Amino acid sequence: GAVVSQHPSRVICKSGTSVKIECRSLDFQATTMFWYRQFPKQSLMLMATSNEGSKATYEQGVEKDKFLINHASLTLSTLTVTSAHPEDSSFYICSARVGDPGEQYFGPGTRLTVT
Amino acid sequence: GQNIDQPTEMTATEGAIVQINCTYQTSGFNGLFWYQQHAGEAPTFLSYNVLDGLEEKGRFSSFLSRSKGYSYLLLKELQMKDSASYLCAALDSNYQLIWGAGTKLIIKP
Question: Which site among B4, B45, B55, B88 would you substitute to test the A interface, given the most A Cβ atoms closer than 10 Å to its Cβ?
Answer without folding.
Answer: B45
